[in-house]
Amino acid sequence: MDIADIVTEEYVEHSPETTVSKLVGTFADSDVRGVVVQDEEFEGIVTRRQLATSHRQPNEKLRSLVWHVPRLTPDEDIRKVAQLMIDSESQLLPVFEGRELIGVVTADGILQKVEPYLDAAAVAEAYSGELVSLEPSSTLGNALNVFRQNRITHLPVVENDSAAGVLSLYDVTEITVRSEVQSQGGDAGGVDPFGGEISSSTARSRRGGYGAREGESTRMLDVPVRDLMTSPVRTIRPDETLDVAVTEMFDAGASSLVVTENGSPHGIVTKTDCLESLTWEAGGNRGVQVYGTDLIDDVTYDEIVAMVEKFDDRDQGMNVLDTKVHLHEHDEKRRGTPLVLARVRLHTDRGLYVASGEGYGAKHAMNEARDVLERQIRDRKTHGRTKKPPDETFWEKRFGWLLEE
């Protein structure tokens, strides 16, 4: 199954000289997941996640934010595209014919196409069961730290063992950018830092002001998440199938659902989790896929496999079904060794575990990610669930549609 019929020409395009402040306005539309940056030639993509997870000045140009993502062709396999979206952390990828950009493909487009076939997988197999949550009284500043430390985009807000709402990193994009410019003072031209005119004629006559405004920024970060979260929260049971989850997300205009049992929140399932279900390997042999193999100069592939195999004996006989390891090199170095981010997705018969670790060199980063995984496996409550590895009938139902034309 290819992506030819889900390529769309409907996308937002900006030039490399567009400012971050204008991009914030673009992302005010919740349906926009990313924008194409193009001048005479295609430059790349800027995603909502990029903007929300880093500090940016409003007058910064998009040229400095451009993300070089994989370029697709219309005949690409849909499972491969799903994997590329996960690897690049971009839910929008460009599609080319030769050197010409003919459109884009989105995560929503993929999920809408495969939705009827997702009844073969349950939410329990795909959702992130390591629940990271906030209380309604938690501040925006605290929430931003949790987002960045855990490299996640959705936070359930829990009160009295019940889901009160969800805070999305995308919901606070405009706030985080504005908080960066509070200390800049007013603009001498009588406009705010985002290029909008000040409505008060008195303010215009003063033509703005200079001087620090850290107090305003501090108060913004002190806002409780109850004032920002989406409520009421949409929930789903772990025994529901993924097609039901995807339908619920589209109907609600949401990108995540809180997974509950007996009214208590136990995890969260996102559109990315549903995308990943398309990449699960069919068959009896577990694969350990490593992306960024050029960075494993101080550790071998066999050592990474050995590390994964040790997880089989943890948590009372848990079975690892497949593993994906993503390595990314940062610019920072120590004594010539680059800072490396290791992100590990461990798909088991007890659910999905995701962990990240940073260190100087791939081995150090992998060890940090391993330690996080070990804590997650040790701390996770199974809640009485017992799942057996998928049998042949399961995989035939899961991937039989790929043979249909």
From TrEMBL:
The keyword Ribosomal protein does not apply. It comes from the Archaea. InterPro entries: CBS_dom, CBS_dom_sf, Diverse_CBS-Domain, RHF-like. Keywords: CBS domain. The keyword Nucleotide-binding does not apply. Residues 127-183, 229-288 form the CBS domain. Residues 183-215 are annotated as: Disordered. PANTHER family: CBS DOMAIN-CONTAINING PROTEIN, CBS DOMAIN-CONTAINING PROTEIN CBSX3, MITOCHONDRIAL. This is Protein containing two CBS domains (Some fused to C-terminal double-stranded RNA-binding domain of RaiA family). It comes from Natrarchaeobaculum sulfurireducens. The lineage of its organism: Archaea, Methanobacteriati, Methanobacteriota, Stenosarchaea group, Halobacteria.
